[in-house]
């Protein structure tokens, strides 16, 4: 890695979605932008819908951030998208397609507001943090490049293919447009934007593989999710000799809670394991009926939706996060469990498969339903023989998060990207897993 410069770069951070009171992409956008303030002079530009929450968080409008009002285009298109997605929490690809139609207007307004400052050299870097989707291009990339200012995008992530054995789940999620998703690669604006982007931060190896070969030298791998230690500040302390497992997530087909119940049924009936299922969704009734039919209700608790603080409380009493989801872009819940010292048991596919190592958890192959159930059953049975043996992996999991995935660490990683970009890439490309990153404060004058 390059030695980090003592100069604090001036960064215009574009995060159309950045909200401290929401979850998913808006929380990632907010968390990254805020963390970067420790390593750079950041001015956040976001969409007006985030304004009030950002003001409540203590930022000063005009000095710390600017809210762009693109509602004239965004509001009617979002209304149509919500109707077409056919259900709350479904049709993610449909939403992204409409976002691709809305977003260029937002960037047009960003350039209208900040174009002259960018041309005047008021910013050392323009960094588009969100949208995270690699399908959404940046029409202002060319203008920023012509102004002689480096343009960075990312972390980009998304579009993980549906496993071939789970087409029924794909249809249940109303993911009709996912069959046509690769069409975005042929849109003329995509190649132009990549050509004029200085550095492409990719949040997953899959996303990196979708970047054309001629631009691979611009890519840097940094997983998108991070951990706020003020939100995850407990240490898991499960007691007793019974394996305590927890599932956290929406109760929808691709999350795999039904596969988990099938895999754990024998252990639940025999009292060798308990299972807390935290989350709500359209499959709740089906899952309750499944548990009754398998006669494994004893030791199985459905908590439905509960406040975040209570999620942490229950999760921190568990030995393992049992999470057989078959399609996760980032896998934030896996990092959250690891941050508490809870050992993840996951399907080795996409985001979770990149976050978990053999020293921090257990990965089962992504086969068909029967294969995943059998692999989870075998793993859970083995772990139930001696739950206390999980302690070393729990410590490793927490240490891995502390070393690489706290938001403060991710700001350091992004600062490495800034320095590499500003150095015209004459130094070695940043690789966050090549060596443990030292605290940034130690490099400050």
Question: Mind explaining what this structure looks like?
Answer:
The protein folds into two domains: 10-226 and 406-443, Glycogen Phosphorylase B (Rossmann fold, 3-Layer(aba) Sandwich), CATH 3.40.50.2000; 243-403, Rossmann fold (3-Layer(aba) Sandwich). α9 runs parallel beside α10. It is 40% helix and 15% strand. It has helices at residues 25-35, 51-56, 71-84, 92-119, 141-146, 167-172, 188-195, 205-210, 257-270, 284-293, 308-315, 332-340, 350-355, 369-384, 391-404, 407-422; strands at 10-15, 41-47, 65-68, 125-130, 151-156, 199-202, 219-221, 243-248, 273-278, 300-304, 320-323, 343-347, 362-364. The chain is an alpha/beta fold and 445 residues long. The two termini are 19 Å apart. The protein is built from 16 helices and 13 strands. The radius of gyration is 22 Å and the shape is elongated. The longest helix has 28 residues, at 92-119. β6, α8 (205-210) and β7 (219-221) form a beta-alpha-beta unit. The strands form two sheets. The protein has a seven-stranded parallel sheet with strand order 3-2-1-4-5-6-7, sandwiched between helices.
């Amino acid at each position: 890695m390059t030695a980090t410069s003592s100069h604090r770069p001036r960064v215009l951070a574009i995060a159309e979605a950045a909200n401290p009171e929401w979850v998913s992409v808006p929380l990632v956008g907010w968390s990254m932008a805020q963390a970067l303030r420790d390593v750079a002079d950041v001015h956040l530009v976001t969409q007006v819908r985030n304004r009030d929450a950002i003001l409540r968080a203590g930022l000063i409008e005009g000095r710390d951030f600017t809210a762009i009002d693109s509602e004239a285009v965004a509001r009617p298109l979002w209304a149509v998208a919500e109707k077409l997605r056919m259900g709350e929490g479904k049709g993610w690809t449909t939403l992204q397609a409409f976002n691709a139609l809305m977003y260029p207007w937002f960037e047009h307004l960003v350039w209208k507001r900040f174009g002259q400052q960018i041309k005047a050299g008021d910013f050392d870097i323009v960094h588009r943090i969100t949208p995270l989707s690699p399908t959404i291009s940046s029409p202002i990339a060319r203008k920023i490049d012509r102004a002689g200012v480096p343009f960075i995008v990312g972390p980009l992530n998304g579009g993980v293919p549906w496993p071939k054995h789970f087409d029924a789940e794909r249809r249940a999620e109303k993911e009709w447009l996912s069959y046509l998703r690769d069409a975005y690669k042929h849109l003329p604006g995509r190649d132009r934007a990549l050509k004029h982007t200085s550095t492409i931060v990719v949040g997953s190896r899959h996303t990196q593989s979708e970047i054309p070969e001629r631009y691979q030298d611009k890519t840097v791998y940094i997983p998108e999710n991070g951990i706020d230690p003020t939100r995850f500040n407990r240490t898991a302390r499960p007691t007793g000799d019974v394996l305590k497992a927890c599932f956290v997530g929406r109760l929808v087909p691709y999350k795999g809670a039904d596969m988990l119940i099938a895999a754990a049924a024998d252990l639940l009936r025999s009292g060798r394991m308990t299972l807390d299922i935290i989350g709500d969704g359209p499959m709740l009734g089906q899952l309750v009926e499944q548990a009754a039919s398998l006669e494994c209700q004893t030791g199985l608790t459905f908590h439905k939706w509960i406040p975040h603080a209570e999620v942490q409380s229950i999760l921190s009493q568990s030995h393992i996060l049992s999470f057989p989801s078959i399609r996760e872009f980032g896998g934030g819940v896996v990092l959250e469990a690891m941050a508490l010292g809870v050992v993840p048991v996951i399907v080795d596919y996409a985001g979770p498969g990149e976050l978990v190592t053999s020293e921090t958890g257990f990965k089962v192959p992504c086969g068909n339903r029967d294969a995943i159930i059998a692999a989870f059953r075998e793993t859970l049975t083995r772990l139930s023989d001696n739950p206390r043996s999980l302690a070393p992996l729990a410590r490793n999991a927490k240490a891995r998060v502390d070393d690489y995935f706290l938001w403060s660490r991710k700001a350091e990683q992004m600062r490495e990207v800034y320095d590499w970009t500003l150095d015209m890439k004459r130094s070695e490309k940043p690789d966050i897993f090549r060596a443990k990153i030292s605290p940034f404060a130690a490099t400050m004058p």
